[in-house]
Sequence to fold (626 residues):
Amino acid sequence: MAVVVGVACAAGLMGAASLSAATPAAPVAATSATSAAASAPAADAAAAGAPREKVLRYAFLVAESTFDPAQISDLYSRTVTAHIFESLYNYDYLARPYKLKANTAAQMPESTDNYRTWTIRLRPGIYFSDDPAFKGQRRELTAEDYVYSLKRFFDPAVKAPLYSSFRQEGIRGLQALRDEAIKTRKPFNYDKPVEGVKALDRYTLQFNLEQPRPRFIYNLAGGDTYGAVAREVVQAYGGSIGEHPVGTGPFKLEQWRRSSFIRLVRNPAFRDVRYEVEPNADDAEGQALRARFQGRRLPLVDAVEISIIAESQPRWLSYLNREFDLIYTLPEEYADVALPHGKLAPNLEKRGMHLHRVLASDRYFYYFNMEDPVVGGYTPDKVALRRAIGLATDVSAEIAIARHQQAVPAQSVVAPLTWGFDEHFKSENGDTDLARAKALLDLYGYVDKDGDGWRDMPDGSPLVVEVASTPDSRSKPYDELWKRDMDRLGVKLRIRMAQWPENLKAARAGQLQIWQLGFNNTTPDAQLGLELVYGPASGGQNLGRFKLDRFDEIYRQMLVLPDGPERLALLREAQRLLTAYMPQKIRVHRMVTDISQPWVIGYRRPFFNQLFWQYVDIDTALQPRF
Fold:
């Protein structure tokens, strides 16, 4: 699965930081009040001689949407659900670039019939956290829970954003079950067995696929989406299920003020899971963490508290004021202050802070709505308009001005750390060439016909491009760059302002012309990025509704092939097609910087999932006393 993150983004996905620093006092005060209130129980406990509660505190820059795994695609909600619900497999916390290992499964899966049949045995004795839906009984996790959880993605009433991702896996019988519900207009029949996913017994789960899927296991390693949900809980809470997440994971939701504050605490029903990692032999930091924590029971902290602070300045100041333990994704406008010459600033280093900086497995881009009458379509003139806009986009200026050098130029949709990524690959996607852009528009009749100084459509009607954005300081520098680039091209620009969730809703409905997004890979497979332009995923992950028969054929062929030269050749052809038709302009891959306080021990940003809370420890002796 892939994640959209909000900019000014993705999956969804993670917000791009902005240049301008806002100075409202209210958010800072609100953050301080929240932190002080949250710290009161810990302070009272310390005063009474009890062990101080270990709480990891940090902030999201975009509000969560829901905590129902079947109804989310945004990064921030998925970060929470990843720690509540559990997948069959997980990525080793310290292995780089990645290593899969069993989680609720007892062992790695048995794959037969050329990757068509996957059989998984669960660990017995795993229990959901207590909830009134279970009527006072302990509720054990069974294979049927995973069957039910997967079926929910196919229930039309759920409207799962990631439905297309599961549909393309060709799980026998699930699509027919969905079609039946749509045709008969009756509730989805969860009780009807299907060949594609079934419980062979209480602890044995089997998938049967229509075609080979060599990388199917990646789908089973995402607790943020395909984590086990109990049917009784869904039935008990109905339409408010997103407010009542009940899983088997290390944390449970204790408090939630929507778009403001989230508190999760250690799940008392969580089984005995130990810190077991396999860092690379040459990873000195990882080996030190292994030596320190190996064998400790998880989670290491008692609670996690998340504030929602959209503006960069109050989020950064709250961290400097020691109200947060971690600045997760340093606002790019503070890179010059926090990272002079790419190193942690001396004043922060003296305070004992730790720098965590990686090239993320992501891409930031803007997409064109291929059904839009202005920028959409597949005729040469429409392709020329999109390619001209792409060539006029000054990516180097974006990196220097808006991102403060915290990114590298992107050449295609294939992200770093994924299969098929080649740092030497070059395409027109990575070019900025205003002269070529103007020549393309001149050639296809996008010229100023009425003398008002702006280019018109070939038929003489006004040419206006509309870019969706959000009314916050993070988006402002990107909007200014859009305006500058389009002014230079002679194209009139209109900015459409709305909050990020509203833009996402409009995007899924095909109502935006151009929108900037970020997209994080949640698996090591490059095909996730290709889903963003796969025809059958239109309206889901494919927000731009790009539909090209040859590309879709390549996509389907890649699904069934094992990694190797034949699959790589198809990937390269897909990259060339996307460059030629330009349904998206892939702009950058981010250098992501996190900074932790001296009392935070063991933090490392995960690449392909959102799991890290349970592996982080807090040294309360080093924490300030509020």
